[in-house]
Specification:
The protein is an alpha+beta fold. It is built from two helices and five strands, in the order αβββαββ.
């Protein structure tokens, strides 16, 4: 178990496991939108930018475990550029520590 404020890191195993869960949810005929959110200095990682994945569907909004944390914003964005995602910014009512979301 990671100690508080120790940054999580992106791992291929995590990605593969979550992809399988996503595929299983999709097979149930529920369309799911995967949204990645970058948080700026959240309370549990005050010295880092944190990347987190959300599964959003008609019936569910499920948050995922943190994917990546780094002291530099560009390191989080680099994880998303590789996936060819687009920055959609923020929406009114977002938590103040949400910097941007990507789809």
């Amino acid at each position: 178990m990671k100690e508080k404020n120790q940054p999580p890191t992106f791992t291929p195993e995590f990605s593969t496991t979550r992809a399988a869960e996503h595929q299983q949810a999709s097979s149930k005929k529920e369309e799911v939108l995967v949204v990645y959110t970058i948080y700026k200095h959240p309370t549990d990682y005050p010295d880092h930018y944190v990347l987190k994945r959300w599964l959003c569907g008609k019936q569910i909004v499920q948050d995922e475990t943190y994917l990546f944390a780094h002291p530099e914003l560009e390191a989080c964005r680099d994880q998303l550029y590789r996936k060819v995602l687009f920055n959609v910014g923020r929406v009114p009512g977002d938590d103040p520590c949400i910097l941007e979301s990507w789809v």
